[in-house]
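Task card 7
Instruction: Convert sequence to structure tokens.
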Amino acid sequence: MPRGRPKQPLTITDDVKNQLESMANSRSLPYSLVRRAQIILMSDDGMTNSAIASKIGVSGFTVGHWRKRFIKQGLMGLYDEPKPGGPRSISDDQVAALIRQTLESKPPNATHWTCRSIAKETNLSKSTVHRIWSTFGIKPHRQKHFTLSTDPYFVEKVRDIVGLYLNPPDNAMVLCVDEKSQIQALDRTQPVLPMGLGYLEGVTHQYIRSGTVTLFAALDLATGEVLAKCKKRHRHQEFLQFLNHIDANVPKDLDIHIVVDNYATHKHQKVRNWLAKRPRYHIHYTPTYSSWLNQVEIWFNIITQKAIRRGSFRSVKQLTSKINQFVKNYNSDSNPFTWTATADSILQKINRLLKALHGTQH
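Output:
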């Protein structure tokens, strides 16, 4: 028989739940606020206080405290109470008006508000505006880019590829394949000024172009190792050469599952013929505009940041040598990437984005 007092039930509307989910998934809000939103969402799902406390790593008392605050005050109850000090110089209505103006309007002579421009417009101080924006996670100067897939088989392809990542097939190797094209061999026109105490490394913005190279790469999902080849161009001929390179370097007794994007080179008839002659190869295309599903893109970002972007190369040969050396060192201590997103979580995120876009259309 259950003991103790029954929990007071939560009442959460769809709008409030959407705001809680946004807070719980935020990377810009304070962690304490994110955790409180997670507590309320888990409680709404029926989890006990002790189960929530164990999962999040807090005490049962803390869980119960924020439940009570939310029941009494709603979303505002999740924010910290005001600290002791002098009386507030602005009212709640002024704060609400500032937030509304920031989110729902733009200045007549610019693309977005700045602290100074909206402070002048609202007769508030710049520091007050900055403090309010920071409290509510408002950043008009920043943008987050996205492109929605128009692929009619988006759902099926997401489930197929994420299924490969989370539950790889037995007796098979999964390779994430793509090319990074037009990598420029740039040589700075003046020497780099070394970093020192109190000042950054100095690099001139002027450079000499010495040609380009395309990097073909295949990331082994299980080990994190990379097969790579540099080519002068990125036509279907070079892609076929890379497929032959893969075939020569993978175990002969395993099925090979290849994840690639929808670039025309990957769907050329000669490529299809090559695959048809080798039944152990299985191709998996990412949805249109969804190359972020291909894990090799993560590795391309790593090599760009660590070996290419800040490098200075007098020739394509020198650039290629640097890339090959990086790949060799990387493979000597490689680890697979940890993929945690499920197909359902990805589709739910896309659905939330679609709802948000629909809400902006009039």
